[in-house]
Amino acid sequence: MNFYVLTLFPDMIEQGLNTSITGRALEKGLLTLKTVDIRDFSEDKHKRVDDYSYGGGAGMIMAPGPVYRAHQYVEQYINARKRAAENTGAGIEEVQSINKKTRVIYLTPQGNVFNQSMALKFAGEEDLIFLCGHYEGIDERVLEMIVTDCVSIGDYVLTGGELPAMVMMDAIARLVPGVLNNDASAEFESFQDNLLEYPQYTRPEVFMGKAVPEVLLSGHHAKIEEWRKEQSILRTAKTRPDLLEKAELTKEELKFLRDYLE
Ligand code: 6GU
Fold first, then answer.
1. How far apart are CA 46 and CA 34, in angstroms?
2. How far is the CA of 152 from the centre of ligand 1 (A)?
3. Which CATH architecture is the domain 2-173 placed in?
4. FRET pair for 126, CA 20 to 30 Å: which of 16, 45, 78, 253?
5. What is the distance in A from the centroid of ligand 1 to the CA of 48?
6. Domain coordinates in residue numbering, the chain
7. The CATH number of 188-261 is which of 2.40.400.10, 1.10.1270.20, 2.40.30.10, 3.40.50.300?
8. Residues with C-beta less than 6 Å from any ligand 1 atom
C-alpha cells in the first residue's frame, strides 16, 4: 500500500505515521509514504497558497493552482514508479494499472463519514492520494477536477485534514497483510460483525482486590468464547444499540439479549 499526502504540514504526517505499528510497517516496506508540500507549488513570490473568499465572509481559501500542480506532480510520480516496476519485470497487473487514475481522498467535514467498510474498500487499492485542506477549505473548482472521494471522520470540526488523513491511513494500514503481528486476520475482528470488543485482562489475577472473571481462568475454550460473545453483546447494547441492529446474532444470543433487556 502506497500512501501519498498533499498537505501544508508534511512533518505532522511523517512524524505521526513513522511511529508505532505504522512506523514498523514503513520500515518493512509493507507501506510507503510520500508527503507533498502544497506550498512548494505556489507561484507567488511569498509562497502564499491562500486568498480571500469571493462573495466575502470570514476566513481564507486555498487557491486552486498549487493544489492542482501538487496533484499533477504526484500522479506523474506514481506513473514513473509503476513504469520502473514494469522494467524490473513486474507482473501484468502492474503494467495494466499504469493508466488507471489513483483515487484522491479529500478530507472534509462535508464528506461521507468514515467507517470500517470504507477502510476495507480503500485497503484494496495499491495507491491512495490524500488531500488535506486548511483554512476555510479549498477552491471548489480544483476539487471537482481531482477529487474522487470526500471523507469526514465524524461530526465535529477540526483545524485541518491532516489528523483525519492519519486516522484513515492508520485504519487502512492495519488491514494490509503483515502489518499486524497477530495471525488472526484484522478483517475478522469483532467490530466487523457490528459488535464492540469484549473486556480483556492480563496478570495479575487479582489487582487491588479486583479479580479476573473466573471463566477466563477455566481453560474451557467454548465457555470462554460464549462469555466473550455475551460481553460483546452487552457492551454493544449499552453504548451502541444502533450497531446491534446490524449484528447477526444466533437464536441463543438473541435470547440472552432479550433476557438482559427485560
Ligand atoms: Cl475530514 N476535516 C476537518 N477539518 N474536520 C473534520 C473532518 C475532516 N472530519 C471531521 N471533522
1. 25
2. 5
3. 3-Layer(aba) Sandwich (3.40)
4. 16
5. 23
6. 2-173, 188-261
7. 1.10.1270.20
8. 107-109, 152-154, 156-158, 160-161, 164
Going from the Cα of 155 to the center of ligand 1, the distance in angstroms, rounded, reads: 8
Q: Which atom of ligand 1 is nearest to the CA of 151?
A: 1
| Ligand 1: nearest atom to the Cα of 158 | 5
Question: What tens digit of pLDDT does each residue of 44-103 get?
Answer: 999 999 999 999 998 999 999 999 999 999 999 999 999 998 887 766 665 566 667 899
Dist. CA 19 → ligand 1 center (Å): 22
Residue that has been written with the C-alpha cell 501544508 in this structure: 8
Query: Which pTM value belongs to this model?
Result: 0.93
Closest ligand 1 atom to Cα of 111: 1
Assigned C-alpha cell, 83: 513504469
